[in-house]
Amino acid sequence: MGRVTVRWLVDDGTAVKPGDKVAELDNANFVAQVRERSLTVSQSETELKRQQWQNELDAGDRQLEVDRKRTVLRRAEIDADVPPGILPQRDFLVKQMAVRKARADLDKAEDTRVSQEKTAALDLGLKRIALEKVKRELALAQQMIDSLTLRAPAAGTIIVGDHWEGRKLQVADEIPVGHVVARLPDLQQIRVKAWLSDVDDGKVAPDLPAEVVLDAYPDRVLKGKILEIAAVAREASERSLRRVFQVSLALDSEALDARLRPGLSARVEVIADRRPDVLLVPREALSLGQGEPQVTLVGGERQAVTLGPCNAEVCVAAGLEAGARLRRAR
Question: How many CB atoms lie within 10 A of CB 118?
Fold first, then answer.
């Protein structure tokens, strides 16, 4: 039916060596076929041996009959080996007829032996073909059983495949043909998959540098760069109103070590622009009404500023002294 049940599955994140068992899929159907084909092979081999023995027995009987006919011919030839004129003409002709009859019987016995040997060889060949066919079916069923046991082709860390319900695969799950049961990623080519909100579309681009901080190692900052950005945004989750672009990032080679494992969560910050020694103003202190942006000093004076790039908390500003104390904008 194009579906199979997971009977056994290694734990997610397990380190494996080449040849280690990763998963077992339901093979009950093929096990039944192996039992049935094994019984058929045994029966076919027994029938083949019985046919061989019967053919040998029949061949012996036919050869014995040919030898008997040859003996009769030899006796008739000896009896007929008398010069003409010694015996009466009638007796001489009778002995000659006996020789011809014995020779005809011998030829018939030889033809019968050859014909029956060909028939027996044909029957034996058909039984061998039938036996080979059943053996191939048995080997195929055994091969299917072996192929339903998934083994690691190389050393690495196993990542269990995802279920369409948004969880990892589990034992007793029924999966369709072509579904990924497990992955064995190359730890020398780790990629970071991140999500960019659609409201930030256009603010990042390939080859921009990025800093990656793993939740498991918050004190370590990994360097990387953006490889590609998906062309189309999609929902962040089912029934979500937020849409995101998938971003793929590569880590620098010096950032790779044994602590990195697939599936770790991380925070990614893309460095779109670097501006050293600039003045930062809290966004809550900015008045962004009509006209130029302004800030209000603690003394009540209002002062216009020129804004640069902003993030969620601060903006780059010019036209204001460092250390100035500001009021919250109304």
Answer: 10
B/e letters for 171-201, b = 16+ CB within 10 Å, e = fewer, are eebebeeebebbebeeeeebebebbbeeeee
Residue at token pair 């045994």: 42
DSSP annotation of 18: T
Q: Cα separations (Å) of 229 from 194, 202, 207, 240?
A: 10, 10, 10, 21
Closest CA to 310 of 270, 267, 281, 269: 281
0.85 exceeded by the pTM?
Answer: no
Written as six digits, the tokens of 304 are: 């216009």
Q: Which residues pair with residue 9 across a beta bridge?
A: 23
Is 12 within 8 Å of 159 (Cβ atoms)?
Answer: yes
What's the pLDDT tens digit per position in 199-211?
A: 888 888 899 999 9
Helices (H) and strands (E) in the chain, counts: 2, 20
Tokens linked to 234: 């999609």
**CATH class, 1-26+148-184 region:** mainly beta
Residue 96 pLDDT grade (very low, low, confident, very high; cuts 50, 70, 90)? confident
CATH topology for the 188-270 domain: Elongation Factor Tu (Ef-tu); domain 3 (2.40.30)
Phi first, then psi: give them for residue 85, nearest 5 degrees.
100, -20
Of the listed ranges 222-226, 271-275, 313-317, 321-325, the least confidently predicted one is 271-275
